[in-house]
Design brief:
With 208 residues, the chain is α/β, with parallel strands linked by helices. The chain has a single domain, classed as 3-Layer(aba) Sandwich (Rossmann fold). It contains five helices and eight strands. It has an eight-stranded mixed sheet with strand order 1-2-4-3-5-6-7-8, sandwiched between helices. Helix 1 runs parallel beside helix 5 and helix 2 crosses helix 3. The longest helix is centred in the middle third of the chain and has 17 residues. The radius of gyration is 16 Å and the shape is globular.
Length: 208
């Protein structure tokens, strides 16, 4: 993301996992984990939306970590349909909590990454563990993946013209949960020329 981005590796169940850490200038007030889009379609932790989410959280004072999912970049293993990826994200959370104990954490993701983070939040709830203070889901994978229910304070952002995950599929998923979604007019799945809206939504809405 910038010259200050620190790269590190974790030992995952399927091999080593390539990770990136971006820190705020002051002592972190929280932890954020960012999950990237689908590994089989070019998704990496350096995806523009993943980087935009990371920048937003660093600006909020969060120690922000990303990882390349299995088989991406220098991460070992092969794609696991979200199961192994959720395990790996849980491992990254444990690592970050050991480095920055007693802090709240947020889970953010784009596209396939929203499925991973929503699954992780649901797992933490089931285990009775500390859960994320908030989820940030951009281009939620409703209709593509079996998205679980999410907390009522989840920040959801979607492009009006998304032809990868239609807005209608996201509305069908959210309607029974009665959760609103922020729709960016004219935005496609990758928010081409609209990335600034994602960062401003996160920063402006974070502590409302």
């Amino acid at each position: 993301m910038n010259a200050q981005t620190q790269r590190f590796f974790l030992a995952g169940a399927a091999g080593r996992l390539e990770c990136a850490l971006d820190l705020p200038q002051e002592a972190p007030r929280g932890i954020a984990l960012v999950a990237h889009p689908h590994p089989l379609y070019g998704g990496t932790m350096d995806n523009k939306i993943a980087q935009t989410l990371a920048r937003a959280f660093v600006s909020l004072g969060y120690a922000t970590a990303r990882m390349n999912f299995r088989g991406v970049g220098q991460s070992e293993g092969t794609h696991e349909e979200g199961r192994g990826e959720t395990d790996d994200m849980a491992l990254l959370l444990q690592h970050m909590q050991s480095q920055y104990p007693n802090l709240p954490f947020a889970l953010a993701g784009f596209s396939f990454g929203t499925f991973v983070q929503a699954q992780l939040q649901k797992r933490l709830e089931t285990e009775g563990a500390q859960t994320a203070e908030r989820l940030v889901l951009v281009g939620s994978a409703a209709g593509k993946w079996p998205m679980p229910t999410v907390p009522s304070n989840t920040l959801l952002v979607h492009g009006e013209l998304d032809d990868t995950i239609p807005l209608s599929a996201v509305l069908d998923w959210l309607r029974p949960q009665d959760i609103p979604v922020l729709v960016v007019p004219g935005a496609d799945h990758f928010f081409h020329r609209k990335l600034q809206h994602i960062k401003s939504f996160v920063v402006e809405s974070w502590h409302r």
